[in-house]
Amino acid sequence: MTALLSVRDLHVWLDTARGPLSIVDGVSFDVAAGQVFGLAGESGSGKTITALALLGLLPAGARTGGSAIMAGRDILAMRSSARRRTRGREIAMVFQDPTSSLHPMLTIERQLTEHLRYQLGLSGKEAHRRAVALLTDVRIPDPEAAMRGYPHQFSGGMRQRIQIAIGLACEPRLLVADEPTTALDVTVQAGILRLLHRLCQEKNLSVILITHDLGVLSSLADTVTVMYAGRVAESGPTAQVMGHARHPYTRGLVDALPHPEAGDRALVPIAGDPAGPESRPSGCAFHPRCRYSKPSCRIAIPPLIRIDDGREMACPVDPLVASIAR
Amino acid sequence: MSTAAFLSRPMSSAWRRIPGAWRQPLTMVGLVVVAAWLAVAVLAPWIAPHDPLAQGPNLYQAPSATHLLGTDELGRDVFSRVLWGARISIPLAMLLVVLAFMIGGTLGGLAGYLGGWVDELVMRGADFVFAVPTILLAMAVVAALGPGLFHAVLAVVLVSWPGHARVVRGLVRTIMQSEYVAVGRLLGSPIHRALAVDVLPNIAGPVSVLAALETGNAILLLSALSFLGLGARPPDPEWGSMVSTGAQHFEAWWIGVFPGIAIVSIVLAFNFLGDSLRDAFDPKTIIKARGA
Amino acid sequence: MFLCLGVSVMAFVLTTVVPGDPALANLGDRASSDPEAVRLYREHFGLDKPLPVQYVVYLGNLLHGDLGESEQSRRAVRIDLAEYIPATAELAISSMVLAILLGVSLGVIAALRRNRLTDQIIRVVSLGGMSTPQFWLALVALYVFFYKLNWVPGSGRLDAIVLPPPHLTGLFTIDALAAGQFEVFANSLQHLILPACVLAAFNMGLFTRFTRSAVLEVLENDYVRTARAKGLPELTVVFRHVLRAASPPIVTVVGLAFGNVMTGTVLVENIFSWPGIGQYSYRSATGLDLTAIVGVMLFVAIVYILVNMVVDILYAVIDPRVGLA
Fold it and tell me: Which of A133, A146, B192, C36 is deepest in the core (most CB within 10 A)?
């Protein structure tokens, strides 16, 4: 497995009136070429900020630390002009809400072709042809007519397909999809996920799929990293992490999922609220909500430890062992 | 949602954000300058070195130790006249804003509360005032009633009530249409109570912004009318008419320049205050209400 | 339509229910010595009839495009207006163009540099423009650039020895260019520049404030992030994406300012001896010239209505979601 992108010890701080606030606190992961990498976690866990840090689109007042090596270059260390050229061309991003993420007053053609022309230097005609091909690729009916349309004339699912087409226009090798289905109707979600899966295979595209929906991940992601409060809780191949969760938080997430095959087994919610960056608990940030927490969890931040077959997790308590011991 | 939620400023009530506004240096400058001019307006008789109307033997004297800002074409002390000018412009402008608020607030409140043709009539009237340039309307009023400071004040009130009317009408309507009031009605609580409880506290913010900005505008408009000879008449030490005198005596630039600086300083100070207050409150209501 | 009617009624009432008697004001000393002249004057202008009759007659004439006869110039108000409007149009339009260019750019810069030093400086400059009395600014500008430095002429639209260019639009700069008279063009530009700049100051400040807040609001939107994620250069993002979305409120305030630019022209035209309707209306107001004032008000109301229509059309052009009514 060759890594397209290697993120090591990524930190993001946001300057506030009360000093720097740590939002992402030492996150590492690899994204393999042609695979879907899932980044999971609740709101405020730092997953969107991680993605924005990779694209260099962090809000003003944010600083990064660590490295993100892509094709031998550290994209976090690049100058802003070089960084800008990677956007769209090497890493593209699809945002959560296709309604607010498309410019309401510009035609689809304009939004699809402007970076083709700027980034790849295509002529108007070439860009137009390419854009039509892209719309066909994402299964937009009557692409020529769609080119002349405006976002408000399309349904949510269609808008998301257009957003994906915009993201793919300059043939990036990595597509970051931030909650691409959250704002959509359930019936439309599956279509978008199938589209991402197909593009991934056809174009040898890598995808970072950011979501709080483990169901989405389990159907699509090859590997998954679960984040909690800016840190990695657990990571590894999707089937293993989902099937045999070891970290109490991952386990909580999995238990909170409805399983069709599990019949009428009761859903188990995770007690408490996720910790925002302003109010992170000391030690393991999950300890106030953790069923297995020990006094030491309040003091020491548990290190990420390697457990068999490429899996890692950050918890000294193995819930499997703990639950047996009870 | 995820991270965007905490990146955006947490919602807090507008009043709580005001302390932040006060910390801005420009707000402090505005506050200090307005306070200083208010003090000057009150204390002018005691701090002005000369009688503002007393003519002296020294005409067209450049600024010097005896006449800090020089003397005018009748040998009057420009510095004293500028100080006394504060006693005319500032109280008048404030009176005017209060009048405009009383008229505009009443009309706007009625329009929002009653709706229907009353609303239509009041808002058409406001549109009309917006459609006619303020000074043209003011000139027409003054021409109709004859020049004079009091008539100029009336003219400015006539052109400045619509801003207040729009703010008050907007708030009244928002609250009348809120579910909260609808529920209250179902439960038998009279709408008057909702208006008294909700409108009055909510109105304080937008109105204070509007008042600060309008006070500055009122001073500008009053002085412009006086400059045109339609407001204060000589020998009153009104800033606009002093500038007008200065316009006829270019060689003695100090006659016209200093009263102008007085106008700029106080209007700018009010605008600093209004601008910071606007940042603190919801900016949109005021933008809509003020029009231009 | 309502506005036109409203303006005519209001202006009519305002200037007719006057303590001042136009006959006395215009005849001066003759009025007291010669009662017959007063009677003839009133008869000539229909002032002896009851007010409602005067108004109906007036309104009927209006519909024929007849604004009545000015009591001061003894000419049809329509002719007076036609003579003075081009001068004001030239002044107002050039000042608006200046104010829009400066105001929008400063507003964009201020928004992009929010709360930094640049933003504060622009705040002071723009609020300064809105706080400076135009009559005083005009005088200071005249004093410095005409009286002291003598860089520009102090009054009028052209030097006395320069003949106006052949009439085309009535805007001397454009007419001169069209006729290829470049010296006339240069001369008219020299006369135009100072009053136009003075007139632009207030609106420049206004547009800066509005552009800043509109751009700040747009910058929060997700589609700006999308544009950046495409790797577009920041200038493209700002001018194509942000400014486009921020333009509706800017267009609104520009439209309103256009309606109100006459306020400034009254003052500025008087100081720069600019032969436009600002000066004309001032003369009419001081001379209690009822028909002339009403004529000017009607004209301004019509301009206001036209500008509003243009604003509505621009809305639809800018934003495809807005349908043309």
Answer: A146
